[in-house]
Amino acid sequence: MSAVSIYAEASPNPESMKFVLNQNLLVDGVSVDYPNLEAAANSPVAQELFGFDYVGRVFIAQNFVTVTKTQPELAWTQIIPELRQFLKSYVEAGGPLFTVDPAAEQKAAQAATAGDPTQQDGQIAQKVIDLLDNYVRPAVEQDGGNITFKSYHEGIVTVNLQGSCSGCPSATVTLKSGIENLLKRMVPEVQSVVAEGITV
User: Contact at 8 Å (CB) between 189 and 128?
Assistant: First the structure.
């Protein structure tokens, strides 16, 4: 196993910090968001992170982990070294990241929630998914979060915001002025975009 290097990168959410690794943790396009310890049953590494009393949320994507803290008074400068050292040691030791492959889990969840859209709704949903994947998700990942498509029904697109986006003060503005405008412009059938996962 090669040496793991990790650097911390601030996100637009002052309570979230992105820890970027020089190794992949997940395949591109797959991410997991754990808003609490109970949700992290599938991830031993996330469970260990919740062992730090200031960790309130853990988000894992292709090559980074975003940690959201619960104590605003605690400065990142005090806790970054501890978290970085923990992640470095854990990954270098080959500690288990997941008990079930999140890619398989995600496919099963999408199949379960897909329902039976009309053919036209299905085509519109596919256009929206392509736009989110190609234009929106890379930018959101830069900020330590992720956006996933949930549903399209009668002009309304529902998305799920994860990681640093979930508690970010600017998430609603980004959603309405950025993502909604893009989708309305590219897919005329879209009337509005609503998000789950914003905890502001």
Answer: no
Measured CA to CA, the distance from residue 13 to residue 7 in angstroms comes to: 17
pLDDT at 200: 43
**Whose CA is closest to 45, among 68, 65, 16, 20?**
65
CA–CA dist 188, 97 (Å, integer): 41
Query: Cβ distance 172 to 158 under 8 Å?
Result: no
Q: Are 79 and 71 in contact (CB under 8 A)?
A: no
Q: Report the b/e string of 57-93 with b at 16+ CB within 10 A.
A: bbbbbbbbbbbbbeeeeeeeeebbeebbebbbebbee
- 46-76 confidence digits (pLDDT tens): 999 999 999 999 999 889 999 999 999 999 9
Structure pTM?
A: 0.70
Bridge-partner residues for 192, per DSSP?
Answer: 156
Residue with tokens 């299905």: 122
Least confident of 25-29, 64-68, 78-82, 139-143: 139-143
Tokens of 185: 């412009």
Which one-letter DSSP state was computed for residue 174? I
Average pLDDT value over all residues in the chain = 84
Assign 34 to helix, strand or coil.
strand
DSSP state of 61: -
